[in-house]
Amino acid sequence: MHLKTLILIIINSLIALVIALLSFSSYQQFSNVLNDRILLQLNSIKTLKQNQIEHLLKSEWERFETSGVFSQNSDISLLKLPDSIKKGNGIYDLTPYHIAKKTTIAFISNSKKRTRIKVLDYNKIKKILLERTGMGDSGESYLVGQDFRMRSQSRFYPNKTPYTILVKTKGVTNAIKGKNSRGVFEDYRGIDVYSVYSQIVVGKLKMVILSEIDVDEVTIPLKELRERLAGLTLAIFLLAVMLSLFLTKIITNPIKNMQKSLRIMAEGDYNQTNEFIKNSKEIKEMFDALAHLKASLQGAVKFSDDIGKMNLHSDFKPKSPNDLLGKSLLAMRDKLIEFRNNEENTRIISKRMLVNGMENERRRLARELHDGIGPYLTSLKHYIENRVQNEVKKSEMKKIVDDTISEIRLMSNALMPASIDDFGIGVTLTNFIESLKKSTTVTIEYEDLTQQENSNITNHQAINLFRISQELINNSLKHADAKNIRITLSEFDDFISLFYFDDGIGFDLNTVKLGLGIINIKERVEICNGTITINAAPGNSTFEIELPIEL
After folding, report:
1. Which of 310, 480, 528, 551 fits 476 for a cystine, CB–CB 3.0-4.6 Å?
2. Strands, E, within 159-261: which ranges?
3. With 90 as the cut, is the pLDDT of residue 25 above it?
4. Alpha-carbon distance 151 to 164, whole Å?
5. What is the DSSP string of 51-91?
């Protein structure tokens, strides 16, 4: 065999093997990264929709519990419910009991007087599930009941009643067993899909939520990559053959020239020289591009994973203005942040409304005690003074009535001090503490540094500051075994400061089970948008509370 033929076979075989291995490795890495990215993106979408549905059900249940409406839906007449469900209490999936098998999620509340039922507007859930941002052309999210029948409208069978579609897939089976996972398997149409699934459990309602996208759509980039790699491999191989021919010529020509030169040198001529140049950058550039693509995909996958874990402060930037997937992920993160912020604001507003309602009820009870029972007792006192002849009995009866009037006055003042509306929190706390000093041996010092005129402390803040002070003093007197208490209420241009000190036994913030008193204090500070710092050292327990001025 000639040297030229042997070199051609060795070089081209090695080049073909290297190209095949590199192409296969790159294809596998791209496929794995793409699979992970799609599943993580689906998981983020599923998590968002699950959170939205759970929040919808809980908020609708709370609204239903607080309302006094007996029923609000015409669909209730189409339900054939067994007594076991009619006597229940909670959120139920009543689809199997609907005459037309229409998807029906209902709230049932039972009391001694009556049974209340309300059917949730299905369009609210449908709106959440039909939001398909980041799900391509074939993606969908849907709900399945414990009976393996669909509960939400299939986008592929829009004219079918959801309940008539049986969805006994691997994902639904695993989710019903309590396994939340992801994978690639056939869906209810018999088509391979990427699927992420989990179980929604709200009260007595159990459903499976799935987010899926067709494998054929996802693998389009893989097919394009495979075709490009095949074309690129063929081009490189042909180039390699041509290059190997050129290289073998470069290699064999020097050998022939060396043979000729040796003959010339044998004749005494040593001036023969040969130079050969080789230069190629194509393969290096190709793998640089693949390495850049891999790095880009890995960054997007990591960001998707962070979103799935609700780490919404993770930093991510699209690789270019045309990076549609990167922009979709950022939009999804922003929606999750907005949803979480709205949920927190709703929670604080609900607490504030609850506390305001409680204080209004206390104000009403205090007014009724003062304006209702008080005049009757006063009239009774005048009657005793003018009509009872026996001075001993008169004295005894007057003392009882006076004690009752005093007790009602104390109860009315504890429920809602009248001075808080007329004179503000400073005077109210002063009066409250002065009355406490008459019934306790504990030394209580109070310093009022609020503005007596043109004060910026709102009535809402004043009531909460009064309740917080009541709770702190009560804890010191009942539990702390304190001898001295110091309280300072200060009003500044930007904030209000309440400083509280006692020399009691203190408590360990890390181990103590905080009672309702501390929890109520923290919640009142929170609904006033304030901050609280607690130091519970023995002999030096302090609470520092700051509330912003509400202009």
Report:
1. 480
2. 181-186, 192-202, 205-214
3. no
4. 9
5. HHHHHHHHHHHHHHHH---S---GGGGGB---HHHHT--EE
